[in-house]
Amino acid sequence: MLTGAHEDKPSAARLLADGDIVGLMRTCHDRRLEREGIPMVLGLADERGVIPSAPDRAQLEEGGAFAEVFDRYSAALIPWARDDDEGAVITVMQVLAYTHFAPGAALIEEPIAERIEGGAQ
Amino acid sequence: MTRPSSTVQREQLRRGHFMRVVNYHSTPRGARDELARELAGFARDYAPVTLDDLDRLFETGTWHKDKPGLIPVFYEGYRNSATVAAPLCDQFGLTGWFPIATSFVECDPEYQEAFARAHWISLVEEDTTGGRIAMSWEEVAELSRRHVVFPHTAHHEGFDTTLSDGDIQREVVESKRALEAVTGQEAPAFVWLHGSSYGLSPRHDDAVRSAGYRYQFANTMIHRIN
Question: Which domain of life is it from (chain A) (predicted)?
Answer without folding.
Answer: Bacteria
